[in-house]
Amino acid sequence: MTMETIVNAILCVAVLLASVRLILWHRASPVSGIPFRLILLLILQPVCAFLLSCSLFPSAETQSGRTLRVATAGTPRLAGAAAGAPLIILPEAGAISGGEAVPDLATALRRHTGTNSIALLGNGLPPRDLDAARTIGVRFAPPSLPAGISDLAASSVVAPGAAFQVGGQLNGLPRASVDLIDPAGRVTDTTRPDSEGRFTLTGTARAAGTTAFTLRVQQDRRTVEQADVPLIVADYTPPRLLILAGAPGPEVKYLRRWATDAGYVVNSQIGAGGGIALGDPAIAINAATLRQFDAAIVDDRSWAAARGALMAAARDGLGLILRASGPLDAATRTQWRSLGFPLSGQDALAPLALPKTDDTAIASTRHGIGSVDSPVDIASPDELLPDVSRIAMMATDGNAPLLQDAGGAPLAQWRAVGSGRIALFAGVDSYALTLTGHRALHGDWWNALLATVGRPVAGAAAIATTSWAGERMALCGLSAPATVEDAGGRRTTVLPVQGCAAYWPVASGWHQLSPKGEARPQSFYVQPADALPVMRAARDRDATQMLRASTATADGSPERESHKGWLFPLAWLVATALLWWLERARIGRRPDTQSAT
User: Fold this and answer.
1) What is the mean pLDDT of residues 449-454?
2) Which of 103, 109, 121, 499 is disulfide-compatible with 75, CB 3.0–4.6 A?
3) Close Cβ partners of 221 (under 8 Å, ≥ 6 residues apart)
4) Which CATH entry fits the domain spanning 157-233: 2.160.10.10, 2.60.40.10, 3.90.1170.40, 1.10.10.10?
C-alpha cells in the first residue's frame, strides 16, 4: 500500500467523522438553523479533503517537473552543443561532450529528482532502461534505419542431416543478394529479397554439435554485412516409421528410399496376395507393436485389416498417414469421411498441377547427369514417364490444407485424434515426382506430412534469443541458481528472481547454461558487440515506441500546462477559510421563538 493510498483513506475517515459531528451539532443546537447552511458545511468537507489530496500528491499532468535529453546509440556527436534541457549520455551513445555520462537511465533519474519526462536522441533505449522509462513520459522521434539486416531468424535446433531455413529482412538494399555459407566456407544457398526486403534460405545440418553458418549480404559485388547464424545440431534417436501397403509397387519403393535417407528407421509390410508378405520380417499389428513406432503410412488396401489397431494406436500418440493408391471404394470413403475428412464429388483421379521445372533439371533426373545420388534405375524413355495424379474427391473444409498442388487443389489434411494425429494424403503415385525433375518436392511433401503427425522427438535444450556481448540479457525458466560458462571457459553463477536471472556476457560465442539439478545444459549464442547493428537499432526503436508519450517539445523543454501545480494548494486554502468562516459566522441563524418566550 502506497503513502498516497494511506493518506487518502485517512482523509475519507476524517470527512465522515466531520459530517457526523456537523449533523449531531445541528440537531443539539438551541437555535434552529436554516437547512442550506448545513448543506454548505457538509459539501465543503469533502471538497477540502479532495483539494488537500491533490496538493500533497500532484499528478504527472499537473507537475511542472523537469525534462532531460537522453543520448542513446546513434546520437550525433554534436548533440551536447545544442541548447535545451540537460543532456544525459548513456554508455551506448559513445563519446559526446557537453553532457553527463551515466551507467543507465535509472541512475540519471535518481540524480535528477523531479524529472517527469525525457526526450530521447538516437535509436532508442536498450532493454536495460525500458523499466525505468515506464514511470515517466517519453518523447521519441525515431530516425530512419540505415541499410543492412533489420531482422534475422533461424531454426535453433535441427537433427543431423536435416534441412533448416533462415529467414530475415533487409532494409535499404533493393539490389542485394543474400548467401548462406556453411562452416567450411561453401555457399549452400543464394537468393534475392522480395520487394519488401524479405528472404528465405535453406541449409543442411551436418554432424551433431554446436556450429554457426554465415549469412552474407552483397550489393554491387560488395559485401554490405555479414552475420553469424547459430545452429544446434542435436543427435537423437531416429524416429521409427511403419509402411503398410496392400501390394508392391514403385510408390512404396521410393517412399522407403526417401525415408531411409531422411533418417527414419523404416519397417515395411507389403502384401502380395495368397497370404504372402514382402518387405521386412513380419510383425503383429497390435497395440504393443505400434507403440514402438512414431508414425505409420497406410494405403487404402491395407487399411481395413488393421483399422482397429491403427485407430487405437493413433489415440495413444501414433502419427497416422492414410494414402490412396487409386480410386476409393465405397466402404473406405465412408470410413475416412467418418474420421473428419471432407470427401465429396466424383470418385476418380484428376491430374495434379506441378510447378514448372527447367529442361536441364528434368534431363539430370532422368539420366543421372551431374547428380551422384540419382539412382540408375530411373532412366526411362520420354513416353514411359509416369504422371502424378490425385483423388478428385478431397474438398476444403474452411481450414487451410496441409499441402496444395501448384493449382491450389488440396492434397493433404490432418485431424487430431486423442493424443495423436491422422493425415489424409490425396496424391497418387507421388514417386513420379522423382522422375520428372521434382525430387525436392517429393521430399518436401512427405517431410511435411511426417513432421506434422509424427510423435514429437525430444531434442537438445536451447535458448532461442538474440543477444550481444556487453549487453544484459534475461535467462528465464529458472527455479534455482544456475551456472553460465562462456566460450572462453569463464563460469558465472546467476541467481533467478521470479524465474528469471540477469546475465551480462563479456564475450561472443557459444555459452552453456547449467541449471542446478538438471542433467542437460542449455546452449545459447551471443553475437559480437558490433554484429547486426541495424537489427539492434530496429529492436531498440520498436521497444521505445511502445512507451507512453510525454508532453516534451522538440528541444526537450516541457510544454506549459493549463493547470499549474500551485492552484490546488491555493484552492484548498480558500475552501478551508470559507469553511472556518461559515462555521463561526451568525449568517443563516435566527433565534428560536419558543425558547425566547
Assistant:
1) 89
2) 121
3) none
4) 2.60.40.10
